[in-house]
């Protein structure tokens, strides 16, 4: 009790002296004085200035990221430009016609392999160039034409892709991949009847080809969207001109979808063969208009 009385006396003395909770022996009650200092510090804190500082730091960080990204893009563009310039300057050191067949075959395979390497690394323009060099040595290679067609297709150069697919088919009409790829390209160009015909031919050559079956189903679906109720007439008769002018559906915008995969897909029972006849007629119209 006596100790408690002495403590209270000391407390009253310290409060009365205005020391803010400090005692003669240096002890300070943390409950007293510290809160006043805290609030005094908070009152002196400039919120607007702190917000401005934070915003400035965020701006500097964003600018730094933007500058680094711009520098990276510039370096990449310069690298690609330099590489294209280098490739464009490359000339065939020896005229293919001056080579033996064995030499031409060797160089054609070597250039094709380079094209494949660039294709795998997604350097498609370079892949196209080396496939072209391979064809300079062996213009009869259906495989290289089909490979270059795929590169053109990924570059969305569909007209060139279709032309290369056709060249591949002309050199080897049994080359299933060429038919499948041309069907995909024609689908991307909105030429659904011809796409169906190419898939039909691929399925005739390889009845179990899952890609062709899936692509065919997609092309039939798109054709029905375009032609509406007249789609069956086109598919069954093989003659798109049988649909009266003005009664056809609106032609859809060119689709740039090359999403066909190798997964299983049930095909619809649509007569095979009729589309091929229609495709020939449509192809003639395209050629006459080009």
Task: Describe this entry's structure for a reader.
Mean pLDDT is 74; it is low at 239-290. Helix content is 68%, strand content 0%. The protein has helices at residues 2-16, 34-43, 47-89, 101-120, 124-137, 142-154, 158-171, 176-188, 192-205, 210-227, 231-237, 274-289. By secondary structure, it is mainly α. It is elongated, with a radius of gyration of 38 Å. Among the domains are: 86-173, Tetratricopeptide repeat domain (Serine Threonine Protein Phosphatase 5, Tetratricopeptide repeat, Alpha Horseshoe); 192-259 and 269-290, no CATH class. Pfam families: TPR_1.
Provide the structure class.
mainly alpha
Can you give the helix content as a percent range? 55-70%
Sheet with the most strands, sense and barrel status: none
Write the element-wise H/E pattern from the N-terminal end onward.
HHHHHHHHHHHH
Low-confidence stretches: 239-290
The 3D shape can be described as elongated
How many β-strands, per DSSP? 0
Overall mean pLDDT: 74
First-to-last CA distance:
113 Å
- What share of residues are in beta strands? under 5%
Q: Compute the gyration radius: what is it?
A: 38 Å
The number of helices is 12
TPR repeats: 108-141
Coiled coil: 47-93
Protein name: RNA-polymerase II-associated protein 3-like C-terminal domain-containing protein
Biased composition (Acidic residues): 255-269
